[in-house]
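Practice record 12: protein with protoporphyrin IX containing FE.
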Amino acid sequence: MQMPPLRSITSVQVLVMLVAILIWKVTVSIVWEYRNYVPPNFESDFLFGRESYFWNGYHGAFYVHLLAGPPSLMLGTVLISQSLRRRSFAWHRRLGRVQVALVLLMIAPSGLWMACYAATGAVAGVGLGLLALATATCAWCGWRSAVARRLEAHRRWMWRTFLLLCSAVVLRILGGLATVLQWDAAWLYSASIWTSWLVPLLVFEISSSSSSLVKKRTLPSNITA
Ligand code: HEM
């Protein structure tokens, strides 16, 4: 009897799986905090001191953000999966549209609004505002390149979008580390915000420009985005 061929799992795939599990775990812990947001508990860490402006429009952006954030992270982990793309391109396309809509219509505008009220002030606010603009730009370019069937460009833009969305995870990990290390400097939050998206983006740009993993491909002409 012949053994069925075993599909070899590379160390990169294992790493990707571990990162995906980490993202899902942090996302669940973010959603667990929602018990302080619905109804709003102004004694909780995030809402403390925000009561004066919360019902003045901020609440709209806040709840849109809470609604769209977790699904966008989870969809991101599914959309970068090569196996889903290979198995069902139609599903990749459908979920991709949902992802772009979530980013362009919900996460980026609500993030931009909330950035004006960022905890600790202007440095954090500008970091979050630019993050919102960068995420929207990447999602827009990713969508346009898919429509134009430029697969390689599409892949790069959507990876950037995903990494920028993951800043929410990186930020919580950095916050957790600071708590464990009992590091409580005033500038730490602002520095973490900038670090949470600029560093992953920089690593991506450097590695993808020097990596042979990035191959030039184009979508078949019978596939529309
Ligand atoms: C990449 C685009 C994003 C931008 C620009 C953005 C922006 C912001 C801003 C400005 C705040 C308020 C921060 C403050 O006042 O100090 C915030 C809070 C929040 N964001 Fe995002 N965000 C993004 C992505 C995400 C994602 C993907 C999630 C998914 C879980 C998320 C979940 C939250 C939550 C739950 C809060 C409330 C505070 C907390 O519980 O930690 N955000 N975000």
